[in-house]
């Protein structure tokens, strides 16, 4: 058993079903302090992928979690972020690679049997938009509009986040892409940015660690976003972490600055 205890009010929706994807997964919902006291107050929502890793070391990959619950709670107490609802969506293990990839492609070209992804990210977006988000908006006091709705993930989850932001800017506008898999399908995410007709109303946190293989690709993606009209520090925060590797522990360290950038406290 992990010593870690979940911090704050977390509600667990076990085996949340999806007709779009034909499967089930657990969904955890973290509520900000005082949620139950303020019966009318509505909150922005951040949807995070790989939900097993977000709050709980016991369920997370390699026993290391992001500690989003503790970090969010502390930042709220210090009035460094606005009170938000955080929804952690578990991946489904085997199907993760299909659900998170925007296009079909080879996962590991060096493997003897090449594993391929079916590229279901758009379908997964359908699950979020048609099934999960309406449920969350009904069950909780959310601000359902796009300007208050965030999406986040790391690695393939970061790639998924960026893809869904580009496809559905009318649903999600605040994006956290930690160490996104820019390499996927010959940098298809860079092509997607280059092919935009115009800049979209997205506020993006993008980062990478300099100890990650091919980390420079994130710099290429950042340059493509700036070329399209995103402004560093205003609606794009790009961060290269010196010596940062591709791991849950590395991403845990970036939760605070990402939340502070995307969900700053409201000016009094």
Q: Distance between the terminal alpha carbons, to the nearest Å?
A: 43 Å
Determine the fraction of residues in helical runs and give it as a percent range: 25-40%
Provide a count of the helices.
9
Structural class: alpha/beta
Can you tell me the CATH class? Alpha Beta
Task: Write down the secondary-structure element order.
Answer: EEEHHEHEEHEHEHEHEHH
Task: Note the main attributes of this structure.
268 residues, alpha/beta, Rossmann fold, eight-stranded mixed sheet, two-stranded antiparallel sheet, 9 helices
List the helices and strands and how they pair.
Blueprint: E1 9-18, E2 23-31, E3 45-48, H1 52-55, H2 68-77, E4 85-89, H3 96-100, E5 105-106, E6 116-117, H4 121-139, E7 149-154, H5 156-167, E8 174-178, H6 184-194, E9 203-209, H7 216-228, E10 236-241, H8 248-252, H9 255-262
Parallel strand pairs: 3-4, 3-7, 7-8, 8-9, 9-10
Antiparallel strand pairs: 1-2, 2-4, 5-6
Describe the protein.
The protein is of the alpha/beta class and 268 residues long. The chain has a single domain, classed as Rossmann fold, CATH 3.40.50. It is 32% helix and 21% strand. The chain has 9 helices and 10 strands. An 8-stranded mixed β-sheet has the order 1-2-4-3-7-8-9-10, sandwiched between helices. Strands 5-6 form a two-stranded antiparallel ribbon. Helix 6 packs parallel to helix 7 (216-228). The longest helix is centred in the middle third of the chain and has 19 residues, at 121-139.
């Amino acid at each position: 058993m992990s010593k870690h205890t979940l911090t704050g009010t977390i509600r667990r929706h076990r085996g949340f079903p999806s007709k779009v994807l034909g499967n089930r997964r657990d969904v955890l919902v973290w509520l900000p302090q005082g949620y139950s006291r303020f019966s009318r107050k509505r909150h922005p929502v951040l949807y995070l992928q790989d939900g097993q890793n977000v709050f709980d070391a016991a369920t997370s990959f390699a026993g290391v979690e992001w500690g989003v619950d503790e970090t969010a709670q502390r930042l709220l107490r210090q009035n460094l972020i606005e009170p938000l609802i955080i929804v952690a969506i578990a991946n489904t293990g085997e199907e993760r690679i299909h659900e998170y990839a925007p296009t079909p492609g080879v996962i590991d070209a060096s493997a003897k049997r090449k594993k391929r992804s079916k590229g279901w990210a758009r379908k997964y977006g359908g699950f979020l938009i048609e099934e999960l988000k309406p449920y969350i908006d009904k069950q909780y006091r959310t601000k359902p509009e796009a300007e208050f709705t965030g999406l986040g993930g790391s690695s393939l989850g970061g790639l998924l986040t960026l893809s869904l932001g580009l496809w559905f800017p009318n649903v999600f506008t605040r994006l956290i892409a930690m160490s996104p898999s820019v390499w996927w399908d010959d940098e298809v995410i860079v092509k997607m940015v280059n092919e935009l007709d115009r800049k979209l109303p997205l506020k993006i946190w993008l980062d990478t660690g300099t100890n990650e293989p091919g980390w420079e690709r994130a710099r290429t993606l950042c340059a493509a976003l700036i070329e399209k009209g995103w402004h560093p520090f205003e609606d794009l925060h790009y961060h290269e972490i010196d010596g940062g590797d591709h791991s849950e522990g590395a991403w845990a360290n970036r939760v605070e600055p990402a939340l502070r950038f995307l969900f700053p406290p409201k000016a009094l």
